[in-house]
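Form 12-C: Joint structure prediction
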Amino acid sequence: MRVKLSAFALGALVLVVLPFVLTDFRTVQLATVGAYFIAILGLDVLTGHSGQISLGHGAFMAVGAYTTAILMANHGVRDLWTIPIAAGVAGVIGLLAGVPALRLSGLYLALATFGIAVVLPTILKKFDHFTGGSTGITLFGKPTQTGHGVGVWGLTNNQWLYALTWTVGGVVFLIAWWLLDSRFGRSLRAIRDSELAAVASGVNRAKYKVLAFGVSAAFAGVAGALLAINVAYVAPDTFPIQLSLYLLVGAVVGFFGSIWGAVFGALLIQFLPDIVGLIPHVDTKQAGPTTLFFGLVLVVLMLVLPIVLRAASKLANRSYFGAQ
Amino acid sequence: MTRNLCVIALAALTLAGVAAASTAGTPGVTSTTITLGSSGPLTGEAAAAAGVLRGADGYFKYVNARGGVNGRKIDFKYLDDGYDPSRTVQNVRELIQQDNVFALFSVVGTNGNLAIRDFANASGVPTVFSAAGATTLGRDYVKYPWTIGYLPPYGEEGELYGKHILATNGKKAKVAVLYQSDDYGKDVLAGFRRGLGAKARTLIVQTVGYDPTASDVQSQVAQLKASGANTFCIFAFGKFAIQAFQYANKLGWKPQIYVNDVASASSIMQLGPRSTAEGSISIAWGKDPATPQFKSDPGVLLAAKIIKKYIPGGNPSDGFLAAGMAEGFSMVDALKAAGKNLTRKSLMNAVTHMNEANNPFLVPGVKVHTTPTFRFPISSVQLQRWHNGHWVLFGGVQSAKP
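Section 2 - Result
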């Protein structure tokens, strides 16, 4: 526990120092990384711990983002206060999605959640008087925007966005840590490993599976709200199906089941397109090399990770038994 | 436990790597370069429109090879947004904050331009000659002094089609309209209604919108055909326009077609069978290289030369490339006029005092003219009719002033 706490403190320290050594633009990019980080934490709770797959987490982010955007643009709610509301709205929708998900598993659940992600942009466009249609909603310069122009505590606008995102990210991380370390997390893992055994031990399967969906979606809602605040603009195409897939790849990269790895997944989502652009002869302006590389990363990880993990556990065992 | 520490250390290293990768951006104007930025759909459904950026880029390279502008070379950096306005916002943020571009030039698409203009104006970065025709880009200069469009305003374009219907078939026309249900499509449609005036109510029998990310417009076209219309307005973009022509043909519907400028490139219109688009009417402001009457035109010949030398893989008869060169020509003119002591203010002063009659890529008689209170660079156009596989211009240059 002490090591984990010091690791958390070290991570927080790195995050505090970074904006002072980075350019303003990298700072705001890392703010976006913070939003992805929170979404991946949510996915980790759901898929990594309760074993329910979701290919539709981008849709929950969209719900959060639009909650923030509509409140900020049309109802004069200050951006900060929209974050918990976005979490609530996305959480409730997540709970609702969790109910039918009880009857689905594996591939079928993947397809159903995929469906949510595919349909949502179209729904957003359909109700254009409410959502701004495909033109989207611009939040830049709205009086409800905090830290725009004048700056807060002497921070530039981008540094403020970074500070906000990662402060929320830290809080969400601590919540996830606490949740997963408590009865809730143990129940989820019991269900993941064997539903039958979990039920036999008195775990309320339906309750925890639905709750996992709700918590996970609420995290994604927070991520969406922060993304909307960061970009100061939302449109239906901000949340394409690729985003949901990237989040899943990010969660895999972040070692499913360990919330500590989520930051790698988040960095990958933000910077893989830039890295792909550095490869000679790969023109990111043609076709879709970025998507291809996300797929490649996923395939390679799926192939390599079990081998690495098995080797690592063998090593650990040997040193453990050797020490005996 | 140690694993977690390793994880954190790795995270710190990765972030440090990111830090090292970021270098100080180049200033927008040096003694030898001017950096311009842009964003457009280099990939995705609307990718054809990115020809505008490639065309402008080719023209800048041509100018650079001849000494540049006032001794400076133009460095044109354009990023892909896949026609998604939120990516346009992020691209523009990168261009302004990371690449320190001097100005944004020819950002493609109405939605993208609307999404970025608050940010660009707050940052005081000129956003000039945008490849979009939304009327608001030229009209709302008091609120957005750093923004100016380029294309003829969509509303005026729609109005011209309305007036043409009144003049040629005002008694018997029954009009069906397919439009893209966003600001661009609604802009054209509103202008079209204005053009028909009091008769709009009786002449228009049906309008159907489609979503720009829909997969096709087959059902919309069938619906419009069922309305019994004899005139069909296609206020659609790229593949949707192609589908509209093809489905109408497939359904055996032979109305008088009006197709908006953004879908009227010869490369889009050359559909099989040949009768599909025969007789369609549109507007022209740039020279479409595939139009026979411009075959030996010096502007079109220059465009072909530039494409061959500077735009690898570029199709010499691509109208989007030529349109981009027209924009590039105006930009070079403006940069020249802004003077040796180039500032963002002097550029805005230049683009709002344009008086350019010698743009070789524009239809003869179409001039680029702006004043500080009139910000529609191209406000005259000529009608054209599709005949036998190519456009034929007719009726002389007309005003498209709002």
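Section 3 - Comments
The CA atoms of residues 70 and 131 of chain A lie 7 Å apart. Chain A has a mean pLDDT of 86.
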